[in-house]
Amino acid sequence: MAGTTTQIRAGVVIADRYRVIDRLGHGGMATVFLAEDVVLSRQVAVKRMHAAAAEGSAERFEREAQLGAALNHPNIVAVYDTVSGPDGVLIVMEYVPGQPLSGVIAAGPVEPDEAIRILREVARGLDHAHHRGVVHRDVKPPNILIRDDGVVKLSDLGVATAAHVSRITATHDVLGTMGYIAPERLDGEPGGPLADVYSLAAVAFEALSGQRPQRGSTPAEALRRSATEPPPDLRETWPLAPAAAAAVLGRGLDPDPDRRPPGAGRLIEELEAGLEGNGAAAAARPPAQAVTYTVRSRTLLRATLVVALLAVTGVVMALLLGGGGDDSPTSSGPAASTGPSRSGQGPGHTSEESPTAPTAPPAPTSTSGAELNDEGYALIQAARYEEAVPVLQRAVDSFPAGTTDLTYAYALYNLGHALRLAGRPEEAIPILERRLEIPNQVETVERELASARAAAAGGKVPGEPKPPKEPRAKEPKHEK
After folding, report:
1. Strand 161-162 relative to strand 98-100: parallel, antiparallel, unpaired?
2. Residue 383: CB partners within 8 Å, gap ≥ 6?
3. Burial class (CB within 10 angstroms; exposed 0-12, middle 13-18, buried 19+) of 461
4. Helical residues (DSSP H) of 231-384, grouped into ranges
5. Which of 51, 93, 289, 418 could link 108 by a cystine bridge, Cβ 3.0 to 4.6 Å?
6. CATH node for 355-480
7. Do the Cβ atoms of 225 and 215 come closer than 8 Å?
């Protein structure tokens, strides 16, 4: 059989053993296929390196296979086999039907209890690797896979290092993902287990707040800011986060490795203790999403959610799964291969209608766009749509012309949504059309725009539950 990736398709047998079922995803170095092991009658993920992969990719590919096979832990994706031959270089690994943590976070902040459960399992896998001399070096939400039954798996050891494996990159080559790389690695050091602790703290920060603790878009900027600014504070994006939890993540994100918690498990233990007793803060934070684990395809996931919601609430609600970025493929299902982008509307969360009238929110007193958006959303939740409109209009008007700030995008969406629910769909249409100019969660905006157009044309728009709150973004800096 020819060895080009384009000829690999459903039904083809790779290496005389693995019958291809579907393509799960592809990245710059490899393509991942869902296949059946015809010898053992089980589904596997087959990762096949591209023939034209960049220099050094073959070595990293081989290292991933070696380290994956050496690390036998329930929270690390298992490697079953490696094959080199006419079909190319293959890694045969455990298939994880589910979604990556990035897909969970895309719908909004994760409930603290669920976030801790997920992070605890990641920490167990990391500590196991560290105790065997392996540093992952690319801990990030797309590489944290959540199986349909809730089991968490750490994947992608392609840039990991081990004591018995020599370095294969140039002295100044940094492998990893900006936003999760420890400062010492940005400075050219290989980084030890405490570099993974830093990355796990960044993942925890993002899971709880919905935003990365990003310090810069380039290694040089991130290094400069880490040397001149304090570690990111969780309360900047979750204002009522417990101070103790913010302090733990501050230590985890400290530029000095010696000031970080001494292990991944210790970090999560301290974070869990810091989050205890945060009921009042949790009630005031942006509502965290209910985690729903995916199945093998987006279509089936949406259908499963619709059935569940019909049974529980009698209401149909679509689940948004955004388009992926440039992350390399993993061994999970389709959602994992194209991790959803940051959600503008967060429809992964559902809320049941209360049989009693909701408590009226306080009268608007804020002037910032983010706070006005929050207050407008609270009015929508209280079914006070007409009152929400002027508040959200003030939120929209508070941003400078031409901005693409995500808080502005959320305010536009909420304004259009409130106008439609207030019986003013004709006014909602241009607002939502303006929202579509910002390339973020277009699918959800298009659905709302379609509903507004249908209502304006006299069509019937199906009822819907109260919308989830927009993930809170940082206050934009207004142009002077």
Report:
1. unpaired
2. 358, 466
3. middle
4. 243-252, 264-275, 279-284, 298-312, 334-337, 369-381
5. 289
6. 1.25.40.10
7. yes
The one-letter code for the residue type at 432 is L
Domain boundaries, the chain: 5-94, 99-284, 355-480
Superfamily of 99-284 according to CATH: Transferase(Phosphotransferase) domain 1 (1.10.510.10)
DSSP state for residue 363 in the 8-state scheme? P
Give the residue-averaged pLDDT of 426-441.
89
Task: Order across the sheet with 88-94: list the strands.
Answer: 13-14, 18-26, 30-37, 42-49, 88-94, 79-85
**Is the CB of residue 164 less than 8 Å from the CB of residue 67?**
no
Buried b (16+ CB within 10 A) or exposed e, 351-376: eeeeeeeeeebeebebeebbbbbbbb
For residues 467 and 480, give the distance between their C-alpha atoms in angstroms, rounded to a whole number: 34
Class of domain 5-94: alpha beta
CA 141 to chain centre: 5
Record the pTM: 0.57
For CA atoms 207, 209, 178, 441, the dihedral sign is positive
Q: Smallest Cα–Cα separation from 145: which of 78, 210, 199?
A: 78
Q: Which of 81, 87, 127, 138 is catalytic?
A: 138
In this structure, are residues 183 and 222 in contact, taking their beta carbons and an 8 Å threshold? yes
Residue 117 has a pLDDT of 97
Beta-carbon-side half-sphere exposure of residue 331 (alpha carbons within 13 Å): 29
* Parallel/antiparallel/unpaired status of strands 18-26 and 13-14: antiparallel
Band of the pLDDT at 303, cuts 50, 70, 90? very low
Q: How many whole angstroms separate alpha carbon 57 and alpha carbon 169? A: 10
Q: Which of 210, 262, 239, 245 is nearest to 410 (CA)?
A: 210
- Least confident among 77-86, 154-163, 443-452, 462-471: 462-471
Say how far apart CA 365 and CA 30 lie, in whole Å: 53
**Can you tell me which residue has the tokens 């579907």?**
22
What is the average per-residue pLDDT within 244-249? 95
Q: Could you give phi then psi for residue 85, rounded to 5 degrees?
A: 180, -155
Phi first, then psi, for residue 447 (nearest 5°) are: -65, -45
149 among known catalytic residues: no
Amino acid identity for residue 9 in this structure: R
Mean pLDDT of 431-440: 88
Closest alpha carbon to 390 in 374, 406, 376: 376
Closest C-alpha among 269, 277, 288, 153 to residue 208: 288
